[in-house]
Amino acid sequence: MDFGLSFFGFVLYPVYLVAVALGAWIVRRVTDASESPNWSRAVWVLTAVVALFPLLEELYIASRFAHHCKDDGVWLPHVLEADGYFSTSQRGSTPVTDTRLSDEFGKAKLGKFNFREYPSDSVPGKIAHVRRREDGGYEMLLLDEPRARYEYRFEYQRGVVDYKIRMIQDAIIDRQTGKPAATDTRYLRYPAFLDALWMKFFGIRGSRCEGPVGYGALFGFAFTATRKQK
After folding, report:
1. Cα separation of 68 and 76, whole Å?
2. In this predicted model, what pLDDT tens digit does every residue of 30-72 receive, in sequence order?
3. Residue ranges of the domains in the chain?
4. b vs e for 107-143, b when ≥16 Cβ sit within 10 Å of the residue's Cβ?
5. 86-116 pLDDT, tens per residue?
6. Which of 34, 121, 155, 172 has the highest CB neighbour count under 10 A?
7. Residue 27's pLDDT band (boundaries 50, 70, 90)?
8. Entry pTM
């Protein structure tokens, strides 16, 4: 577990303590706490809790983040063999009819695969099916539904899973079973109170678990492309 308070957070902490002490002094003066021993003790206890809050908050976030990071990364029981895939996350404008494509466009779209499918922005309800032809050229067909077995879903699941901790999960769905065949889970933590005071001015939103797998890595090595014509 890494205590995640930054250098600037530690610099701000003494300033925060001075503000808390000043606030406690004002409360005691305004309420005349010296006249009531019980109230005086309550003020001091409350002051101690407020003074320790930034450290306790950071300790809690760091411990929970370390726990969730155990599940961070790629789950891939076995490499998936596929000659193409379908993705609702990768959209694009398409011709309104079936058409041949330039080699440059086809290679950019397919990469190592024989075909790729995605929803057409130009023809609502249609699926663009970009494929490699038997003669080595490329073409795009418009289909009513995808033919690929596997579907790549960017941010298949996302949401807050703990205090200031969010989970984002990409997935490859087996369309025959409707279940994930592989997932890439990323946990992100947001800064605690002291760090949030300065990070927001620099657009820093948080950090993610450390590991060898990078953002969007699932798609890169989950598939083994085949050359079966689809």
Report:
1. 18
2. 777 666 777 778 888 999 999 999 999 999 999 999 999 988 8
3. 7-68, 72-79+150-225, 83-143
4. eebbeebbbbbbbbeeeeebbbbbbbeeeeebebbbe
5. 988 766 555 555 577 776 766 777 777 889 8
6. 172
7. confident
8. 0.74
